[in-house]
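Hi again,

Forgot to attach this to my earlier email, sorry! This is the prediction with protoporphyrin IX containing FE bound. I've pasted everything inline since the attachment limit keeps bouncing my files.
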Amino acid sequence: MMHHVILIFHLLAATIWVGGHLFLAIRILPEALKKKDASILKNFKSKFEPVGMPSLLVLFVTGILMAYHYDVTFTKWFSFSNAIEKVISIKLILLFTTILMAACAETLIFPKLKSERMFPAEFFIITVTIIAVTMLILGSLIRIGGL
Ligand code: HEM
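Structure tokens for the complex follow:
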């Protein structure tokens, strides 16, 4: 029962994180590129961040709690020794990559973002969205035994 409650919070956070990024990649980014207007991306970022970042934190905390239920404890991370642990370790690597990219976007990409040169932001948005969808697909594999 407890696992199921944690899973619901995990799925709610995944909905916000993955859904937000898909909306950004499919709707907001093409509009910003078409209108050559970086402020469209900046506006979305300022609105999404207050819900997106907490949802990433919820994904991390609930993911680790569920990993412990599968007996994938801290000492077993990144050993790639069984099917479930493999999925969890890959998810952790992708999560750390996402956090690193978010920090880069915050400090390097967005402060210098110009309407004439949106490629760096475009690259980051597409990459983080692909990672988010990959995390979702990996999550769905756990109930069928992992990788
Ligand atoms: C962007 C980040 C993430 C997304 C979008 C995501 C998404 C998902 C999804 C969609 C499921 C499927 C649940 C089901 O089959 O009912 C899942 C399950 C799971 N996720 Fe994640 N997840 C993320 C991050 C993490 C992290 C960082 C961890 C571990 C450290 C983790 C651990 C798990 C575990 C253990 C399950 C299996 C739950 C179960 O079916 O009992 N997830 N995740």
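The chain has four helices and no strands. Residues 2-142 form one domain.

That should be everything now.

G.
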